[in-house]
Design brief:
Elements (H helix, E strand, L loop, with lengths): L2 E15 L6 H8 L5 E11 L4 E11 L3 E10 L2
Antiparallel strand pairs: 1-2, 2-3, 3-4
């Protein structure tokens, strides 16, 4: 599903860090070593059809590498 973040991500929470992430080996192979964290937050997203909705988004992030593999988990509105 294609989408883009409109505005800021709010209510950011850490879900898992390092070895607690299921996909840690894949992340390290593809993007490199780092202190990987899985995060979640709420953000306005613009969907492929042009509608804007409030959604819970999850992503992986490491210092110096940035946000990777962002996905919508559920809609909040």
């Amino acid at each position: 599903m294609y989408f883009e973040i409109v505005g800021e991500i709010e209510e950011i929470e850490t879900i898992a860090v390092g070895g607690r992430i299921r996909d840690i080996m894949r992340l390290r192979r593809k993007f490199g070593p780092g202190r990987w964290r899985k995060l979640k937050g709420a953000a306005r997203v613009r969907l492929a059809n042009g509608t804007t909705r409030l959604a819970e988004v999850h992503w992986y992030e490491a210092h110096g590498i940035g946000r990777k593999k962002m996905k919508i988990k559920r809609f909040l509105d």
